[in-house]
Specification:
The chain has about 210 residues and is an alpha/beta fold. The chain is built from six helices and eight strands, in the order ββαβαβαααβββαβ. The strands form two sheets. A six-stranded mixed beta sheet has the order 4-3-5-6-7-8, with helices on both faces.
Length: about 210
């Protein structure tokens, strides 16, 4: 069972209890909000427009960006393709790529970003994610995700992400949900950081795997 603590105001009066598992999520959300605002300013300056294609984050990248006022100038929209069939039917991901490479792979992430961009004429950057949040993931792939990135000027690329927290889940549904939420947030943080890197340097990810 998750520990809890009691809120105390500056007079020392006890208030409502706060689950300590919420603290990392609150801190993550503050980071996401700050990075989203930074990315908005960078996109406004460059004139770029994003489109997202999300599997394991289920729309959290786009939703996080949309919290920033004025983001409609820089965010075209997003595809939530949680099931393999949605990836095939909505983003035209060839089934043979999923069968050959696995749905959580650099190839699938790249094609997701490419095809989201191809279907969104007003966008200049496509970003995608596919990953294993647990608890049903193979042990060696637990917490592993791939970010796809595509522009109209260069080859697409994919970046391997290791999602935090890395600790193994116990059997309770509550703890599994907590880890999944925190890993989704961590994925968003890493992707926003990579997008900011691209906006400031024109490069993205030291270990990026480029398409051919």
């Amino acid at each position: 069972m998750a520990a809890s603590m009691t809120r105390t105001d500056f007079h020392g009066k006890a208030g409502a209890e706060m689950n300590t598992s919420d603290e990392p999520e609150h801190q993550n959300q503050c980071r996401i909000d700050g990075l989203s605002r930074q990315l908005f300013e960078a996109l406004k300056k460059s004139g770029d427009v994003l489109v997202t294609a999300e599997s394991c984050t289920a729309g959290l990248i786009a939703a996080s960006l949309a919290r920033v006022p004025g983001m409609s100038d820089c965010l075209a929209g997003g595809f939530v393709v949680y099931q393999n069939a949605s990836k095939v039917n909505w983003l035209s991901i060839p089934p043979e790529i999923i069968d050959r490479c696995d749905v959580v792979s650099c190839d699938v992430a790249r094609v997701m970003a490419e095809n989201a961009l191809r279907q969104t004429p007003q966008a200049s950057i496509g970003v995608s994610i596919t990953g294993h949040l647990g608890p049903q993931s193979p042990e060696s792939l637990d917490g592993i995700a791939w970010m796809g990135f595509a522009t109209r000027e260069s080859l697409s690329t994919a970046i391997r992400l290791v999602l935090e927290p890395a600790n193994a889940m116990d059997a309770t549904l509550e703890s599994q949900s907590i880890v999944r939420r925190q890993r989704q947030q961590n994925a968003v943080i890493q992707i926003l950081q990579h997008l900011l890197q691209h906006q400031s340097t024109g490069c993205i990810g030291e270990d990026a795997l480029w398409g051919t």
